[in-house]
């Protein structure tokens, strides 16, 4: 029986079946973005993109599928 493949939800590249919806490259980018947002919660998409070397369209795609939501890391205003 053949190996099951599917497409990464972010970059749309084929990937082997796994419990993740993103390929390993996009998972790595996602982790970089999360780390940056934790340290700099008020950064713009442009700042995040320049600092992590991840293109804005990829960041926007991650946000659209529910990953890396900036509002989860912004400090609460009391």
Could you walk me through the main structural features you see in this protein, from its secondary elements to its overall organization?
This protein has helices at residues 24-39, 45-52, 56-64; strands spanning 5-7, 14-16. A hairpin with a 6-residue loop joins β1 (5-7) and β2 (14-16). It has a two-stranded antiparallel ribbon with strand order 1-2. It contains three helices and two strands. The protein has a domain at 26-78. The protein is elongated.
> Quick one: biggest sheet?
2 strands, antiparallel
**For the CA atoms, what is the radius of gyration?**
14 Å
Averaged pLDDT:
83
Bin the helical content. Answer: 40-55%
Share of residues in strands: 5-15%
Low-confidence stretches: 73-78
The arrangement of helices and strands along the chain is: EEHHH
Which term fits the overall shape? elongated
Order of strands in the sheet with most strands: 1-2
Separation, N- and C-terminal Cα atoms: 58 Å
Tally of contiguous helical segments: 3
Structural class of the secondary elements?
Answer: mainly alpha
List how many beta strands DSSP finds: 2
Brief synopsis:
This protein has three helices and two strands; from the N terminus they run ββααα.
What attributes characterize this protein structure?
78 residues; mainly alpha; two-stranded antiparallel sheet; 3 helices; 8% strand; disordered C terminus
Secondary structure elements and their pairing?
Elements: E1 5-7, E2 14-16, H1 24-39, H2 45-52, H3 56-64
Antiparallel strand pairs: 1-2
């Amino acid at each position: 029986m053949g190996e099951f493949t599917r497409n990464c939800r972010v970059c749309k590249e084929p990937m082997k079946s796994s419990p993740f919806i993103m390929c390993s490259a996009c998972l790595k980018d996602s982790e970089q973005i999360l780390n940056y947002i934790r340290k700099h919660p008020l950064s713009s998409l442009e700042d995040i993109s320049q600092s992590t070397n991840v293109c804005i369209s990829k960041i926007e795609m991650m946000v659209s599928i529910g990953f890396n939501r900036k509002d989860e890391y912004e400090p609460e205003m009391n």
